[in-house]
Design goal:
9 strands; alpha+beta; globular; nine-stranded mixed sheet
Length: 140
Amino acid sequence: MAIHRIDHVGIIVNDLTAVKEFFIEFGLEVLGEGEVDGKWAERIIGFTDVKATIVLLGMSDGQAKLELVKFHTDSEIESIQQSLKNHIAFAVEDIETVVVKLKKKGAEIISEIQNYNNIYKLCFVQGPEGIILELAEKMR
């Protein structure tokens, strides 16, 4: 079990365009954009009827990334935003062992470990004071 790095910091926003433009003007670059929805998103986030737009921003050296998330689903948007707040994503090795260790320390599992397109294993956990960790293990 190992933590390799902080992969990104995720921020839930209401006005994605304004926040994206702010950080681009600040000097970050768009690394990727996309929509997240469907059963997979529901399992990983722990809510139903999830639809979100995600923008990944970073610096040219690739060292730090910022994920902006705009949820679109009216039915649970307030609950999602309150529950997930913001999060820190960690690239880890042996995600199963990490999850067990965090559970023993009192972390609440928001979603069981999910397979994302056979690229990553992902899981959200909530630690002390409501801090959300997104754990990601690159699949081989």
